[in-house]
Amino acid sequence: MKPVDFTSFVEQLAQVSGEAILPFFRSSIQADDKSRGGIFDPVTEADHAGEVAMRRLITQAFPAHGIIGEEFGAHAIDAEYVWVLDPIDGTKSFISGMPVWGTLIGLTRNGNPCYGMMHQPFTREFFFGDGSSAHWRGPGLDGRSLQRKLRTRPCASVREATLMTTHPALLAQGTREAYERVEQQVRLSRYGGDCYAYCMLAAGHIDLVIESGLNAYDIVALIPIIEGAGGIITNWQGGSAAQGGAIIASGNAQVHEEALAILNL
After folding, report:
1. How many percent of the chain have pLDDT more than 70?
2. Residue 84: beta bridge partners?
3. Residue 103, CA atoms < 13 Å, CB-side half-sphere
């Protein structure tokens, strides 16, 4: 059976979530700590408002679909289609007034990521893909909307690569040493970005993203974007990234294989 085209519906989800979230950005919003004494893990009223808006629209339009969301858990995860939502990926940047955060809207069919969008309502950018192609849409210098195809860039080896991670301190226990082995070999490493880093890889500005301790809602939406742009994204064992965990995304197969080998020394 041919997959249903959910492109226009994802645009609606991006619109309603952006309208719910954006009024809180660069405001005096307060953040609660979900970590229960661990590394600070903030959640805000904006996170809740964005997810509520998307869940409401999905339930109205597709009551048989499942939903996995960061803030309100899972529903009907055995359904053919399951929406995987993170209303604000990069809440630490959000509460700091930095624009490197985004809303992640992912869709799986029979457990496989089939469409994803990262929407940044403040910069009015959309990164989206279906695994076979990926595109960016946003404002040009004259304010008019532009769209272009996303494509990862050539990179011959890890030593020539630019690597990003959100922050080494956020790497899961037991994975930081492996990450540092790769970081010691790359040409340039940069911290910060959360979902934005993966989109910069798809856009051809960086070559590697390595993280660990991710959940499905942190990564499902980004998989079809990266793969649609010609990149590769797996877990550190080379398997599916769809369940989260320790994740590596690369612009091409050669760099991916080299970095995987270093991670698994």
Report:
1. 95
2. 68, 106
3. 34
